[in-house]
Design brief:
The chain is mainly α and 696 residues long. The protein has 24 helices and five strands. The strands form two sheets. Strands 1-5-4 form a three-stranded antiparallel beta sheet, with no helix packed on it. The protein has a two-stranded antiparallel ribbon with strand order 2-3. The longest helix is centred in the middle third of the chain and has 22 residues.
Length: 696
């Protein structure tokens, strides 16, 4: 084995008594940002910058980065778990002499916390699973265990509970390299793929992302592949130093005990060789996986299933030069990003549909002449109009018209979009709704005024997508991401469920986004689907007025999206649900005018709306308040001033914080353009409110 080295208006006060209020004329416009206190500006823009000029700079920045075929794709960043797991895979595959090894290791080193471990988002606490994997990856790549950094890492890991406290995914990696016995991992029997859909526990009862991990992991469980590493490159010292009292407590609830019993039973059957359906199940898993390779950027088009697919295929005997095995490596190679500092960063997946839809919204709203004073009118043939048109064409060409896993429970004409370039079996509600919003925004603001020939095709696509979204509505009135009524709570108690994403239930942010999409197409209150969704949001609103955000951090995200959706379908601004949500946003505006929230709020509700202000979360709060009828409030103007003060000379904003959510409490995301296209949308909408106020 080769081993290498971001005075209130009177009505604001009535709503919230906003603590961030400052004395002064409450009609002060956001259009002139103050000259003092502009942190993050490379060189201050002229004080007489018009909002149109600020907006134009950001639009130009986005247009300059549009691909020739019309799409946009921003960097998508996770934590060092990705680089660590990639190196562990390379070690198992005997590929630690590859070009990316040193760069991945350098990134892991640079992300180490001062106290010694590794976090799963900037500013977060040590995560024991991330830390154990990082430590092992560094040892495998030749880092000296006696060095100060590695000593600090060992001490931090020991305080966190050591390798016995890691999650199930990490245990599988440790078993793969001989650092834990497979018996310490939860059983993932391949026979699960044979369970019929009517059975209470079956493959399609778990979330789509868990499904794509369970199938290849079950192959790994069946064959238990192992590559031993030299003792001096292993982590025996972590087991010796572990404080096992710091490990998470065992869940002794009824379902948890039941599934632990099933786990022991399955392991006992394997111990005596009683696996009569094993051969049939293994072949069924292989067929299931390979079918989902087609028209997809790997299984599920995300990093973990691609890795487990490679391991599973190799474990069952597929040679390294087999087409399906080569496909796994090719998809993994596409996720490796070369950073300017010479490090290598693994992306969890790629996000072109999501980025293209939001960028299109931002560019269209930023360029729409009748919304902003001082903006340039659009004319037929304008290059800016052509830029938006290319994005529309790209999105239309990426509509998924084939049935996927969702069709096991939903009878509807296939129509939707995935997150990635290609993921045929897994279109999702969030991307589909966002694309509908983008296409409808373009149609209403650009296409119809220009009599664009794409109008008919856009209308057909929107109509298909809306029918699909209606069919995907859950029984409770909300929406999940990939499936309908994927909400069997007891499945969260299986031993494998510690990634906190075993099911895909409704979430308020998704309900808000779908309502926004429906509102863009003319659906309003009184439609049964809309009324059920409004009832769902009324039931799920927190007592303080906020909504939980499943796919973004966190209550700011959920509250913004719910408010925008409710406004889009005609809920009046004086509805108590809207006024209480607006009051919550006002109450959480910070003294400098921005908004921020830490991912810690997923674990500690007292931190809802608390955190360093960020451009993306400030933009969400501004848009939420505008949707709540507060566009003329001083809070919105101060928020827009904060964004203007933070804007860089090239029209961008800087943000280090992770404000995207993969799995709450487990995995977070830094969408690099969240701090660009969302502030652009917020400034365009705030400018429209200011223009309307001046006209009044």
């Amino acid at each position: 084995m080769n081993l290498i080295a971001v005075q209130t208006d009177p009505d604001d006060t009535a709503l919230a008594g906003c603590a961030a209020a400052e004395p002064g004329d409450h009609r002060t416009s956001w259009r002139r940002a103050p000259t003092a206190g502009r942190p993050g500006r490379g060189d201050a823009a002229a004080d007489d910058d018009l909002p149109a000029e600020r907006i134009d700079r950001t639009v130009a920045w986005l247009e300059d980065r549009q691909a020739p075929d019309g799409h946009w794709r921003a960097p998508l960043e996770g934590d060092t778990i990705l680089e660590s797991e990639y190196l562990l895979l390379l070690a198992w595959a005997d590929r630690l002499d590859g070009d990316h090894v040193a760069g991945c290791a350098r990134r892991i080193v640079r992300q180490q916390l001062p106290e010694g471990g590794w976090a799963i988002y900037p500013g977060g606490p040590i995560d024991v699973s991330a830390s154990v994997k990082a430590y092992l990856a560094l040892k495998l790549t030749g880092h000296d265990p006696a060095s100060a950094d590695m000593c600090r890492a060992r001490q931090a890991i020991a305080r966190a509970g050591g390798p016995w406290a890691v999650n199930s995914f990490t245990k599988f990696y440790l078993a793969l390299l001989g650092q834990l016995p497979y018996a310490a991992c939860p059983a993932v029997p391949p026979e699960a793929v044979l369970l019929p859909d009517w059975f209470p526990v079956n493959l399609y009862r778990v979330s789509a992302w868990s499904r794509t991990m369970i199938v290849p992991l079950s192959l790994m469980w069946a064959f238990k592949p192992l590559r031993s590493v030299p003792a001096d490159r292993g982590i025996a010292e972590l087991f010796a130093a572990a404080d096992r009292s710091a490990a998470p407590p065992i869940d002794n609830g009824g379902w948890a005990r039941f599934f632990r019993g099933v786990d022991r039973f399955m392991k006992g059957c394997e111990a005596i060789g009683f696996t009569p359906l094993r051969a049939r199940a293994v072949q069924a898993c292989r067929r299931w996986m390979l079918a989902r390779f087609h028209d997809s950027d790997g299984l599920g088009a995300i990093f973990p299933p691609i890795v487990w697919s490679y391991i599973g295929l190799r474990a069952m005997g597929c040679p390294d030069d087999a087409p399906e095995v080569r496909e796994c490596w090719e998809q993994l190679d596409r996720l490796v990003e070369h950073e300017p500092d010479g490090t290598r960063r693994l992306e969890p997946c790629r996000s072109p549909v999501w980025d293209t839809a939001i960028s299109l919204i931002a560019v269209v709203e930023g360029r729409t002449g009748d919304q902003r004073p001082g903006s340039r009118p659009q004319v037929a043939g304008d290059a800016r109009v052509a830029s938006a048109g290319r994005a529309v064409d790209w999105l239309l060409d990426h509509e998924i018209r084939a049935a996927g896993d969702w069709a096991r429970r939903v009878a509807a004409q296939p129509a939707g979009w995935c997150f990635e370039y290609a993921n045929r079996f897994y279109p999702d509600v969030d991307d589909t709704a966002m694309v509908v919003i983008a296409l409808a925004t373009w149609r209403d603001r650009v296409g119809r005024p220009m009599n664009d020939p794409r109008i008919s095709r856009v209308g057909d696509s929107i109509a298909r997508a809306c029918r699909w979204l209606q069919a995907m509505q859950n029984s409770d009135g909300g929406w999940g991401a990939f499936d309908r009524d994927n909400n069997v709570e007891f499945l969260c108690k299986v031993p494998f469920a510690d990634h906190n994403a075993m099911i895909d239930p409704s979430s308020p942010d998704l309900a808000g986004r779908v309502l926004e999409a429906f509102g863009k197409t003319g659906l309003r209150r009184g439609h049964p689907c809309i009324d059920r969704a409004i009832d769902y949001l009324r039931r799920t609103q927190e007592a303080d007025g906020a909504w939980y955000g499943r796919w973004g951090v966190n209550y700011i995200y959920g509250t913004w999206q719910a408010l925008v959706g409710l406004q889009a379908v005609g809920l009046p601004a004086d509805d108590p649900m809207v006024t209480s949500a607006a009051a919550w946003l006002l109450m959480h505006q910070q003294p400098d005018g921005g908004w921020g929230e830490t991912p810690d709020s997923y674990a500690d509700k007292s931190l809802a709306g608390v955190g360093s202000p960020t451009p993306s979360q400030t933009a969400w709060a501004i848009c939420g308040l505008i949707a709540a009828g507060r566009g003329d409030s001083r809070a919105v103007r101060r928020g827009a001033q904060w964004l203007a003060a933070q804007q860089q000379p090239d029209g961008t904003w800087q943000q280090r914080e992770f404000t995207g959510t993969g799995f709450p409490k487990v995995f977070y995301l830094h969408y690099h353009w969240y701090s660009i296209y969302f502030p652009l949308i917020a400034l365009a909408r705030a400018g429209g409110c200011a223009a309307a106020e001046d006209e009044a």
